[in-house]
Amino acid sequence: MKLNAKFIDIDSAEPEILLNGQDAAAIGLKENDRINISGTRNVVAIVNISDTLVPRGEIFMPDGLMALCGVSNGEQVDVTYSEKPDSVRSIRRKMDGEVLTTSEISSIVNDIYESKLSKIEISAWLTALYINGMNIDEIADFTMAIAETGEIIRFNRSPVFDFHSLGGIPGNKITPIVVSIVAAAGIMIPKLSSRAISSACGTSDFVETFCDVEIDAENLKKVAEDVGGVFAWGGGMNLAPVDDIVINIEHPLGINPKAQMMASIMAKKVAVGATHLVLDIPTGKGTKVPTIEEAKSYARDFMDLGEKLGIRVECAITYADQPVGNAVGPILEARECIRILEGQDHPASVIEKACDIAGIILDMADIPGGSVKARDILKSGEAHRKFLEIVEAQGGNPDLKSEDLVPGKYSLDVISTKSGYIHNIHNKDIVYIAKTAGAPSDKGAGLMIHLKKGQRVEEGQPLFTIYAENETKLKRAREAAMRSPPMDIEGMLIKRVSSAGIRRCAG
Amino acid sequence: MKLNAKFIDIDSAEPEILLNGQDAAAIGLKENDRINISGTRNVVAIVNISDTLVPRGEIFMPDGLMALCGVSNGEQVDVTYSEKPDSVRSIRRKMDGEVLTTSEISSIVNDIYESKLSKIEISAWLTALYINGMNIDEIADFTMAIAETGEIIRFNRSPVFDFHSLGGIPGNKITPIVVSIVAAAGIMIPKLSSRAISSACGTSDFVETFCDVEIDAENLKKVAEDVGGVFAWGGGMNLAPVDDIVINIEHPLGINPKAQMMASIMAKKVAVGATHLVLDIPTGKGTKVPTIEEAKSYARDFMDLGEKLGIRVECAITYADQPVGNAVGPILEARECIRILEGQDHPASVIEKACDIAGIILDMADIPGGSVKARDILKSGEAHRKFLEIVEAQGGNPDLKSEDLVPGKYSLDVISTKSGYIHNIHNKDIVYIAKTAGAPSDKGAGLMIHLKKGQRVEEGQPLFTIYAENETKLKRAREAAMRSPPMDIEGMLIKRVSSAGIRRCAG
What we know:
The structure is a homodimer of 507-residue chains. The first copy, chain A, has helices at residues 21-27, 63-69, 86-95, 102-113, 119-132, 136-147, 175-184, 203-207, 217-227, 242-253, 258-271, 292-309, 330-342, 348-364, 370-379, 382-393, 427-436, 471-483, and strands at 2-8, 16-19, 34-38, 42-49, 58-62, 76-82, 161-165, 189-193, 229-233, 276-283, 312-319, 327-328, 410-415, 420-421, 424-425, 446-449, 456-457, 462-468, 487-488. By secondary structure, chain A is α/β, with parallel strands linked by helices. In chain A, strands 1-5-2-4-3-6 form a 6-stranded mixed beta barrel. The termini of chain A are far apart. At the A-B interface, helix 3, helix 5 and helix 10 of A face helix 3, helix 5 and helix 10 of B.
């Protein structure tokens, strides 16, 4: 059928067009069917129907699709029914519990990436994946297909080490420490991190308070090969880009099918050319992996998958029932991280976790001494020197000092109203308060936690300090702390002690 | 966040709006999240993001949503994050293989009906239903929830009989015959039918060639109570309207989960107040139910479900490996149907099927004689008199004769190029040819099949005649018959014998 193309000012992940219902019926189309639109070029789009908005004889197309199709507003296009892509049949096969072939998996991934599958179809795919899962061979195929939607970096040095943490745990600021120790030992580790999605502060959110994190693939290669270590943001590098589309469908469903999760993580490692990977599996209530048994099962699966992909994987199961260290929020975390590199010997939880992970990497690289050696490199100042080298290579100040990092000038202490022991710290509430204070977009916002689980607190002693960049957000964060007290000590009241002014807190 | 509402000219089944990415991030929103929009009233909508199209500070809303929200173009609204409805959690529970409660099922159905669930969520729901299924109690709850989204008709007469065919089989023109026989025996049977979705001719498509099918609920009651029988269209009566939304999501996935299929069918029976139902289960290659074993399993499930719903269900398993009778297409089917009511004794397959179904209904109503009695009512002319009564009550001509129905004036015979026996008739190809000829929208288009399975054919003898309302469509249908020969006799060639003019064919 010949129709006149009209521009509509909407753009979506899926190429949708609007037809009048009678035209649709005449072509034999129903809503969510596909059509071929022939202008100068052919494009495929998903049909939406509106009798009230679209006059007969017209097709409403978004501008991106018009450009692809090579037509201008008002020009005629030819519209015909288009078969579903073969990948829809493969999605059906996964619904039926079948094992998919390499080429089926690759078709599904490519069709998602090229917008050939609709939201409805991607949702069905993820649901089938969630319920019926994949075997390790399928996940390996899935990983490669995802990696191949984007750039794959090839280093001139080998081996390429990497590490990755499975779960969001607040205050997990170990990345620059691990990278600095490992690179100081002569191992290349081009570590890419993410920004916060639902957390208060991703690694890139605090690293960018003292150097650039948005470097391109070429620069990543150069810094890694020259200096040995990188702590950059992976989001700007077109690595496994299909993931961004998938996340937008997973998110509203609140699911992250295991096969998808494993393939997404490993695809980024394939894309960055990793030969060795240490996987940190934070385990505990409120994390993705609540029990040690599940953590062990994840560890086995990732190691098997690594073998299929030619990446040597070792796993560290870590406890995640309270924040790592004391600082939560970009500048606060950066300061705590750099203080440790400068030689400060606490908080112990950060130092231990960083040295344990670095130790496993040294073991894998056949450097004797493991975590003891890692601690030596940290204590001797070698890690600090390497850290400043990397900071400089990423465009930061080579004379950077922890004091340069100053948190938000509005702060208040939350005081304990009774004496007792800290039973519990709720990660979710800590994140909620820090986000309410403005983190991660307000770099100075966040929390300093003064007491950790099992420690004694006396009545009137500060439990934690909230920082914010303006008074309104500080007030809101205080209210958030009242609504969702993050610490259990047999009751807690919020009392404002200092209203403004910079306060220094021991980390 | 305060934003200025701007109108966009698109409307969709789900209430979608467009935000600028930076505004979305500031509110903490991702694509496909929900927001509350407060104008004069509150509405909930699904977030789409476009940086290029939407300036910061604006929200693009479809006009329907603006009206619901009580704002005009350019007015300010307040936008905040909105939690997912509880039904999303219930969908997750079905993904996890759990049994849902009555209220969970009712929430899901209502949220679909009220556009509170997005396409992504409905797709996940249908996929979970396809994979994990429902037990009979859940399906009964599901049926009631679907029925309650629309009107429920209450008759002053009881019992209310109904029958339903599970599968699309071409040429299945028995409805007016069954209804006329049964109503002539004094049983009330307000039968609602559908139009073709993917077939060449639904019951309503051929019935409307000789009387009105679009009657409202009040008229349906009146005609059924006065005359005893109705053969009308169910689509205009707001019965179980949520189904229309669901079908639009099932269709692109090519799935029809058994629980959804059973609940949709039975919801329409609940809505029409049926107390007794005969279910025809067409069984054979190329139908929904390929084997007798599966047909028996469907029969058991429908009878169990009927018991839960207080509807007495009996099932007829019928063969569906070739068209019923000889005519396919609206006017051709109407003519064949009325000829049988007028006393013509063939095609036998139509008469047998109609009398068998009517016989089961007579049995259920404790009228002795079953299908023999049904045949008597047909032969005696009682069914024909009742048929004309119903036709008149539905606004048709009380002196209607089969000769009044004249098929398309363009026709051609397809001739056998060899002698032999008819092995096979492919329903799908028959439908394809009839649709290509213009059925069901061209009322005169379709096929007359001259030989059925097992019959002997001689070289040069016509196999079937194609009818169309214009020469172009006739030509296309001829090409369709060449591409997809619908009969197997060890090869077949297409030859055009008569190019135009009305041709009479024995039924």
